[in-house]
Amino acid sequence: MSSAVGHHHSHKEEHFEQSDAVRDIVIGMSDGLTVPFALAAGLSSAVSSNAIIVTAGFAEIIAGSIAMGLGGYLAGKTEIEHYDSELAREYREIKTHYETERREVKEIFGNYGLSPESQEVIMNEMEKDPDKWVEFMMRFELGLDKPDIRRARQSARNIGLAYIIGGIVPLSAYIITDTPEKGLVISAIITVICLMFFGYFKSKVTGQQPIKGALNTTMIGLLAAAAAYFFAKLLS
Q1: Cα dihedral 189/195/18/131 (nearest 10)
Q2: Which of 16, 105, 162, 204 gives 29 a disulfide partner, CB atoms 3.0 to 4.6 angstroms apart?
């Protein structure tokens, strides 16, 4: 029985890690496809050299991937710090507000339909182990699960790499063409295709309508690029 429970638990952990990784890739990819594409489109109307666009594009990809990766890392670190501060507060409160904390646990069990007698029995058992008591309060009163320390680093890596891969797509067109005009046309075609695929996949994973998601993602990318293009044309 215990091995079955252990097996089920490890499967759940794997599922959560996969969904977290997918979320990171979605965040990195959507910005990676959109921002360098908009930058390259803007530069296409302002400069006459593909080399300038490629150089600026790669500089943006490097800066963007570091900024996005660090953002993901700091978000993970903040989550851990928040959990730790709440954990310390719960440990204090089971000493300083002993009766209140006991009552809160009983209320939680009451919400699940347990009788006052059963609540008292469970509470008496639970308070023998302060660690388990606090862990119970963290999960069922505050809705907080202990964050994985490795998660922040994994998140930074996933987001950063996804951003780089996404960013190379629109820039590749300027490497294989000789004028910004040709580059922009091919870049727009391959980026739109990638945005459609990506938007479809993203919506499928997050349980939204895939076709609608694909169109929404593509429209956002095209709007950003068009705005950059016309703004740069205006200035030049």
Answers
A1: 140
A2: 162
In a domain, 99, yes or no: no
CA distance linking residue 111 with residue 213, whole number of Å:
38
38: containing domain: 25-90+153-231
Per-residue pLDDT tens, the chain, 236 aa: give them. 444 444 444 444 454 456 778 888 888 888 888 889 889 988 988 888 999 999 999 999 999 999 999 988 888 888 888 888 888 998 888 888 888 888 888 888 887 877 888 878 888 878 888 888 888 888 878 878 888 778 888 889 999 999 999 999 999 999 999 999 999 999 999 998 888 888 888 787 777 888 998 888 888 888 888 888 788 778 76
Contact 13, 148 (CB under 8 A): no
pTM of the model: 0.70
Whether 215 is in a domain gets the answer yes
| 61: in domain | yes
- E strand or H helix at 218, and its extent? helix 210-235
Per-position DSSP letters for 148-201, written without gaps between them: PHHHHHHHHHHHHHHHHHHHHHHHHHHHH-SSHHHHHHHHHHHHHHHHHHHHHH
Residues 6+ apart with CB under 8 A from 22: 205
